[in-house]
Amino acid sequence: MNEATTGDRVREYDVVVVGGGPVGENVAERVRSAGLTAVIVERELLGGECSYWACEPSKALLRPVVARADALRVPGLRRAVAGPLDVDAVLAHRDAMAFHWKDDGQADWLDSVSVDLVRGHGRLDGPRRVTVTTPEGDTVRLAARHAVVLGTGSVPSLPPVPGLDRVRPWTSREATSARRVPGSLAVVGGGVVAVEMATAWQALGAEVTLLVVEDHLLGRMEPFVGEMVEGGLREAGVDIRFGTAVESLRRDDGTGSQGPVRITLSTGEELTADEILFATGRTSRTRDLGLDTVGLVPGDRLAVDDTYRVTAVPDGWLYAVGDVNGRALLTHQGKYQARIAGAVIVARAGGRPVDDAPWGAHAGTADTAAVPQVVFGVPEVASVGLTTAEAERTGRRVDVVDHDMTGVAGAHQYGEDYRGRARMLVDPARGTVVGVTFAGPGVAELVHSATFAVAGEIPVERLWHAVPAFPTLGEVWLRLLENWRHLFDR
After folding, report:
1. What is the 3-state secondary structure (H, E, C) of the chain?
2. 40-84 tens-digit pLDDT
3. Which branch of life, at top level (predicted)?
4. What is the b/e burial string over 34-55, where b = at least 16 CB atoms within 10 angstroms of the residue's CB?
5. How many angstroms separate the CA atoms of 418 and 48, rounded?
């Protein structure tokens, strides 16, 4: 592994990437494969939040939960899976999927693609300059000939609750890496992290209470999604309390051991839990990046154009990809941004034209038009593109087409008492699909077909010729198209 040296000498690269998560890794690999030199600066583990404290470990916790729920619907399997989960095996698998919180493999991969690494805290130090403080306290100075890319991700956003700083709350990191199952867990929030972690820890044996300020779950999705997910959580035994905020916290430590958390609620009640998880959103990780040295405000998200250049910085040398720009806080979307930004940097470095028209090779159009997302729970949720609420808010006219997936032949094969729902939004002027949402067992694998339809702007009349295999859940596409023709006389 080539490491930039310490001392007063400034080491030059074509591209300096601050942040070694999947987003930063993708940018560095793209520019390096095109012949530019690149270095990554990382203060924690290479691979970032997704690999160690988010996507990988959370889905490892959820996979046995969802698989067991599916198996319980299949005749001949119920007796075999009726018992409790093997908690030790689940946690061991989670540890393996998180690489036991070691990044040796990631470092080896970085070496294999000839990208250099500097471990430490990187900060901007004026235009095209990055200064790194290493774990040993040394200073490494880097300069970029063409671009500095910030891919430092996001951090949990915690509310100003009295006592919060003294109770040692869980955030998404603790929720995905905990070594034991708490007897009781209070989860604050109603979004994806809250829903997924409530699902996982309830199934692993915790008594979970979900505290939601709003009167619904997953408010950014179609309303029926929250209703179905609420039903699944309640069926699993989760206590859901809507319209409930946390007023104050204290932890009874006793003789120094970790005691229970006393939670005073806005309803006047007091709830006791062994642990409390705050899943109340995330904020861009920019507070200590030296943004002030280039005229930006520390702590702010970094506004970018569709080529991911930071718009407020002159000369176009600073890029921001992934959560740090706030456009779409999803790992797969950040990697998409990285691929676009890498191609843009290479083109500009070589003096070649940049195709930044919508859906062009150098434009991140999908961030606003076709963002796929899956909520891994019981039931699963998958969506891409617009929702009805977004269409109304932006003044877009859409045809709304619903279908109860219970009647799809593939649903009957998937399991008894299958419950699912699908919604398709069609732009009536263009005759293209602009949004799709599925909720039900197994629907995660439907989302890419929906993404093709939305991102490809495929005319609905052409989708008639995309024949779904029988009997699969994908047959819901045929039903949606039939409903659209029937309802809107197409």
Report:
1. CCCCCCCCCEEEEEEEEECCCHHHHHHHHHHHHCCCCEEEEECCCCCHHHHHHCHHHHHHHHHHHHHHHHHCCCCCCHHHHCCCCCHHHHHHHHHHHCHHHCCHHHHHHHHHCCCEEEECEEEECCCCEEEEECCCCCEEEEEEEEEEEECCCEEECCCCCCCHHHCCCECHHHHHHCCCCCCEEEEECCCHHHHHHHHHHHHCCCEEEEEECCCCCCCCCCHHHHHHHHHHHHHHCCEEEECCCEEEEEECCCCCCCCCEEEEECCCCEEEECEEEECCCEEECCCCCCHHHHCCCCCCCCCECCCCEECCCHHHCEEECHHHHCCCCCHHHHHHHHHHHHHHHHHHHCCCCCCCCCCCCCCCCHHHHCCCEEECCCCCEEEEECCHHHHHHCCCCCEEEEEEHHHCHHHHHHCCCCCCEEEEEEECCCCEEEEEEEECCCHHHHHHHHHHHHHCCCEHHHHCCCCCCCCCHHHHHHHHHHHHHHHHCC
2. 999 999 999 999 999 999 999 999 999 999 999 999 999 999 889
3. Bacteria
4. bebbbbbbbbbbbbbbbbbbbb
5. 37
- The reply to whether omega before 64 is within 30° of 0 (cis) is no
User: Contact, 132 vs 117, CB < 8 A?
Assistant: no
In terms of C-beta distances under 8 Å and separation of at least 24 residues, what long-range contacts does 7-12 make, across chains too? 7/139, 8/141, 9/141, 10/129, 10/141, 10/142, 10/143, 11/39, 11/140, 11/141, 11/142, 11/143, 12/142, 12/143, 12/144, 12/145
Mean pLDDT of 171-198: 97
Instruction: Give residue 426's pLDDT.
Output: 97
Read off the tokens for 62.
Answer: 């959820």
- The Cα 322–Cα 291 span in angstroms is 17
Residue at token pair 């990780």: 285
The answer to whether the predicted template modeling score (pTM) of the entire model surpasses 0.70 is: yes
Residue 85's pLDDT band (cuts 50, 70, 90) = very high
Q: What pLDDT, on the 0 to 100 scale, is given for residue 258?
A: 73
Secondary structure (H, E, C), 386-444: CCHHHHHHCCCCCEEEEEEHHHCHHHHHHCCCCCCEEEEEEECCCCEEEEEEEECCCHH
For the segment 346-368, the average pLDDT, to the nearest whole number, is 96
128 pLDDT higher than 60: yes
Q: Give the pLDDT confidence score for residue 7 in this predicted structure.
A: 52
What pLDDT digit, counting tens, does each position of 319-332 carry?
Answer: 999 999 999 999 99
